[in-house]
Amino acid sequence: ETGVTQSPTHLIKTRGQQVTLRCSSQSGHNTVSWYQQALGQGPQFIFQYYREEENGRGNFPPRFSGLQFPNYSSELNVNALELDDSALYLCASSPDRVGANVLTFGAGSRLTVL
Amino acid sequence: DQQVKQNSPSLSVQEGRISILNCDYTNSMFDYFLWYKKYPAEGPTFLISISSIKDKNEDGRFTVFLNKSAKHLSLHIVPSQPGDSAVYFCAARANAGKSTFGDGTTLTVKP
């Protein structure tokens, strides 16, 4: 059983650029959630995807967008990068939308915006 | 407004002793609570959980206690081991929705 894999592990961008982060969910999981973890803070919910549709969104601006593909993998896109977007971005998958309480996390993608 | 708070950023205990990590929440709609453990360069991993209809759940060395009237939960680790040294996050969910996390407590278990 493969876990959640994320790529890239580290990347550096400059302010104003765009970034795409990728996530492969755990086998058998069809729901993917994205979280942003700033230094010294806990993970903050960005959004969740279930069966290729956004199913819940946190307090993040529209320049944060996502996709889920038929194989349940997912992308997080961030446009017009700002310095405060520097963080660890965590992808988590779960078996289904209803009653799925436990998240399986990837190791994250660390984004640095200069 | 932070709905899940872990007021102790760090905790240091001696190997073999009890570790107690605390978490407070404000949202009465939370009905499921989880603890995750995070090692450096890894994602958080699920440790133990408790439903709001219970007040205690035990799994080996780990026990979670829930006090709904006080909106407080705690994680007890007995006995503590050096391998338990990690960041511990408390999380809460309402109606199978998003998980809301605290800022974490760094536990150091000294040999």
Write a concise synopsis of the structure shown.
The complex is a heterodimer of chains A (about 110) and B (about 110). Chain A has about 110 residues and is mostly beta strands.
Secondary-structure topology with pairs:
The complex is a heterodimer of chains A (114) and B (111).
Chain A: E1 5-7, E2 10-13, E3 19-24, E4 31-37, E5 44-50, E6 53-57, E7 64-68, E8 74-78, E9 87-94, E10 104-105, E11 109-113
Parallel strand pairs in A: 2-11
Antiparallel strand pairs in A: 1-3, 3-8, 4-5, 4-9, 5-6, 7-8, 9-10, 9-11
Chain B: E1 4-5, E2 10-14, E3 19-25, E4 32-38, E5 45-51, E6 56-59, E7 62-67, E8 72-77, E9 86-93, E10 99-101, E11 105-110
Parallel strand pairs in B: 2-11
Antiparallel strand pairs in B: 1-3, 3-8, 4-5, 4-9, 6-7, 7-8, 9-10, 9-11
Notes on the protein architecture:
- The complex is a heterodimer of chains A (114) and B (111).
- The mean pLDDT of chain A is 93.
- Chain A is globular and about 40 Å long.
- Chain A contains no helices and 11 strands.
- In chain A, a hairpin with a 2-residue loop joins strand 5 (44-50) and strand 6 (53-57).
- In chain A, strands 2, 4, 5, 6, 9, 10 and 11 form a 7-stranded mixed sheet that branches. Chain A has a 4-stranded antiparallel sheet with strand order 1-3-8-7, with no helix packed on it.
- Chain A is an all-beta fold and 114 residues long.
- The termini of chain A are far apart.
- Helix content of chain B is 0%, strand content 55%.
- Chain B has strands at residues 4-5, 10-14, 19-25, 32-38, 45-51, 56-59, 62-67, 72-77, 86-93, 99-101, 105-110.
- Chain B is globular and about 40 Å long.
- Chain A binds chain B through residues 4, 33, 35, 40-45, 48, 56, 58, 90, 92, 97-108, and chain B through 4, 6, 32, 34, 36, 41-46, 49, 89, 91, 93, 96-104.
Keywords:
heterodimer; A: 114 residues; mainly beta; 0% helix; B: 111 residues; six-stranded mixed sheet; five-stranded antiparallel sheet; 55% strand
